[in-house]
Specification:
Two copies of one chain form a homodimer.
Chain A lengths: L3 E7 L3 H12 L4 E4 L11 E3 L5 E3 L4 E2 L4 H9 L4 E3 L5 E6 L2 E5 L8 H19 L12 H4 L4 H8 L3 H15 L8 H10 L3 H5 L8 E3 L3 H9 L6 E2 L6 E5 L2 E6 L2 E10 L3 H4 L3 E3 L4 H9 L1 E2 L2 E8 L3 H4 L2 E7 L7 E4 L8 E8 H7 L4 H16 L8 E6 L12 E2 L4 H5 L10 E3 L12 H16 L1
Parallel strand pairs in A: 1-2, 1-13, 2-10, 7-17, 11-14, 13-22
Antiparallel strand pairs in A: 3-4, 5-9, 6-9, 7-8, 11-12, 12-13, 15-21, 16-19, 16-20, 17-18, 18-19
Helix pairs in contact in A: 1-16, 3-6, 3-7, 5-7
Amino acid sequence: MTDLLDVIIVGGGFSGLAAAKTLHSQNKKIILLEARSRVGGRTHTRHLPDGKYVDVGGQWIGPTQDRMYELCQEHDVTWYETYNQGKNILDLNKTLRTYTGLIPKMDVRSLINIDFVLKKLDRLAKSIPLDKPWSAANSKTWDSISLEAWVRKHCFTSDCFKIVRAGLETVYACELNEVSMLHALFYIKSGTNLTCLLSIDKGAQQHRIKGGMQTLAEAIATPFLSHIKFDSPVKNILQQDNRVIVSGEGFSYHARNVIIAIPPVLISSIAFTPALPLFKTQLLQKLSMGIVGKVFGIYEKPFWREKGFSGQVVADEHAPFQTFFDSSPADSAYGVLLAFCIADRARNFFSQEEGARKKIALEAFSKYFGKEAATPLHYVDHCWADEAWSRGCYAGLYPTGVWTNFQNTLAKPTDLIHWAGTETSDIWYGYIEGAVRAGERAAREILN
Amino acid sequence: MTDLLDVIIVGGGFSGLAAAKTLHSQNKKIILLEARSRVGGRTHTRHLPDGKYVDVGGQWIGPTQDRMYELCQEHDVTWYETYNQGKNILDLNKTLRTYTGLIPKMDVRSLINIDFVLKKLDRLAKSIPLDKPWSAANSKTWDSISLEAWVRKHCFTSDCFKIVRAGLETVYACELNEVSMLHALFYIKSGTNLTCLLSIDKGAQQHRIKGGMQTLAEAIATPFLSHIKFDSPVKNILQQDNRVIVSGEGFSYHARNVIIAIPPVLISSIAFTPALPLFKTQLLQKLSMGIVGKVFGIYEKPFWREKGFSGQVVADEHAPFQTFFDSSPADSAYGVLLAFCIADRARNFFSQEEGARKKIALEAFSKYFGKEAATPLHYVDHCWADEAWSRGCYAGLYPTGVWTNFQNTLAKPTDLIHWAGTETSDIWYGYIEGAVRAGERAAREILN
């Protein structure tokens, strides 16, 4: 137990796996400690008794997520196009309308307004230096207001506000008043631009992984599986005499370095000796996780396609879910409808019992796609805020004042400890691609 | 160990003590579990080897803090007037000026502007319903911006902004962009008004406790001292069969009810079974603690008084500390200068070694009060963010979006668990008075 390892990696999500892979390939002696009994972190492919599956966590990849495509190729994992044909549905002011493409059928003023708001957000985001958002010319101003304050100021019709809000809530996984405008702009730039973040074609939702996202996590883990210790939540990290001792119930490992690759809100549940620097502990109090639940109806076939529907819906605050997608498998052997339930809607929906949730969900599915939707083969929902080892999804949220007051504190190494996790990436922050890049960057810090 | 108690109180700060006192006086079987080896929580009187003392935590009481005066009377604890005579100092743009009263000597535009901003904040605060800040007419707007956004918009001179900022940072213990405008207004109303919060005469800094604030905490605890278990951080709270089992290393107690009276940021370090409701766990991720350090020079006598100084300073961001007070004991047997070091200034100051801190502090003291200040009998500083069982001071901060999205979630009972702590009080939120009222309210919830 007291053999000196090169690196201990805490957390077996994509970031920890990417770090472990990088170090293992350089013949470093590693161990990866994972609190759960599986790898994948905020990605999780749930298999149903009849062999069908749904990705209850992160499920898409898209253009410029280069490391994800490279990892798929390296590990013989294949991807396929997200279904994106037919009519979309807009559920606005309790009325349903159908449309094709990104822009719904609405009054011209609202349409122009939506276009103006999205383009303006993209234009402002371009001015953010990704490696130092706090140095943008207007950073102080943007970091003193929430995204909501800015959006409300620039939406001149209430319909515009409702649509923009549902879209942006799906992007950030929070109410718009829960995130700093500066962070919102950083996030857009980090993921290319807002059109990319909102789109299937040429966007962040373009491709899915055949067999589910966890297939890739497991493929990455395979070469160093014997170095992964599951069900091992870390309780203490002690730096002493140029080594780090990482321990929990029934285990204790020594190493030259440690990489922490867990969500920011979980870091303060580890006791660090010596204590982490003041800026780090203060920052960690400030970040909260977004809240998103995924709600699935699994059907014999994707019946909505025959009716000319894409499976996509955008719904205002009268509906229980913000956005819907066709989430069927590569071969369309069965049909999967996926609804995103986010922020206040998620807190209300997941405060109810499963029976009540199922009823609400199937009513929503039926309202949009017809009575076939009321009788799925399976109903599945999953709220990431309920997971003790994630405490939310997609990612950590920066409220006002944090980027400007704390700058790059989150990613900065602290003596022998290096920091990974998607929240430490300036490219594709909050996405799996960001997690992978952060893990590889933390590994390189140690290798160099 | 498995005797059924009536109530277990977690936390021996003023809120837990007030709850325990209320229940004990009604002959309830209680136990109070405290992580530290002392009572008092965020109040702490530090005794020096020569018998002198300083209050490194909360130290003042003032008008409308009725319960605090009543507790002092009941327990034969006396109070005295905070020293408030002579010239104050303003350190602005690296220039020192002296003045008397609340309003510094400055250009007329800035003076009018300061008056306008403070009065306007007071006027807006009046519109906040203390028991439901989220229902104020402008709550959505105020909860979408930080206090900083509002203050910057209403300060027309940079000198006005600098003074207002130093004053408000001292009130909230954070950078102004770290707190929601709605929370800032609630806080003002909760503590009467801004003049009261900023003042010694007829204000929140009017009186001090003879012998230090902890004298009162200890006096309250005396009658039920045998029911307090020290050095007992709670790890698990299990609700089962109409009872609650509260346990930690080496202890386990059963009771009909529990009162949690610890800072919000510490609550998530307890494992609750069943898990706390989603709204509660989400809210707890959102709150952070303010950061304040107190910096003391202890001298043979309050020598600055003879020179005509009050000991009070307000300093802009060029100086290491925001505000200074004469913090000498009741009989003026020795002199104590106190500087408040808050938010970014605290994070920078307390990131340095003690030797460097002492040098910076004594230079500041000397700059304002002369060379006698350079050679104190003792130098003491204390940062509350470094205390594992507080993690900051004065109180929990609501960033944007929390009051409107979560409403009264923090104080709401969850089955057999009741919630105290100054952050659950709508009167004198963040102050010791609020802590006492919250503890008594939680006890009454159980008694009724």
